[in-house]
Every structure is written in structure tokens, then in C-alpha cells.
Design goal:
The chain is α+β, with helices and mostly antiparallel strands. It is built from 2 helices and 4 strands, in the order ββααββ. Pfam families: YbjQ_1 (PF01906).
Length: 121
Amino acid sequence: MGIEEYGGGQDPHPDVLVVTTNDVPGFQVQQVIGEVFGLTVRSRHLGSQIGAGLKSMVGGELKGLTKTLVETRSQAMERLIDQARARGANAVLAFRFDVTSAADVGTEVCAYGTAVVIARA
């Protein structure tokens, strides 16, 4: 059921293609499995909050928070891919991230999309 021939390059998940588009050129949706998501909530580290507060006074990138958000998004995406794979999908269409503040103590990141089975047209 894999789609190795799509040419995923350095994709760490060659068996599950994840795209933000509603279709994949050259492929046809054979089956729509349904919504899948990966969710994680990260609390804010006190040290990074203090550093962010100081940095906000002088301006510039909040590198510690940026690193945490990248890791959080990656974890949410991993969970989405795991769920899609477990349900028999080889692709996720209309992939998106939703990021919200969770009760002012952390950040909630949800990766979501539509799990499908695609085949070369």
C-alpha cells in the first residue's frame, strides 16, 4: 500500500505522504478514511519565560521558544502520521496546524488533515 514511487526524497515517512493541498498531482484518491490528528500540549519552562520576557524588552528572536515550538509541532505531526498509518492511509491531504494557548500555562499544538489511500493515476 506504500507510495514509495511518489519521490518523497528525504522524507522520514516515505510510506505516508503529507501535503497541504486537497489532491496530489498524478495520484488519485482511492479511499477517504477520514480525519486524523496529532495533539500535544507543552508547558512553558520557567527559564524560557524569564528569558523571553527579557528578550521582549530589547527585541529579537526568542530562540528557546522557537526551538520548543518546532519540537512540539514535530511531535504533533509524528502523532498524526502514526494515526494515519494505523488506520491504513498512505497519505494525509489538507494538512494543517492549529496552535492555541492552553489555560495560559502552555501551548497546545494540533496537526490535522484527511487520511486517504492514494494510487498513481
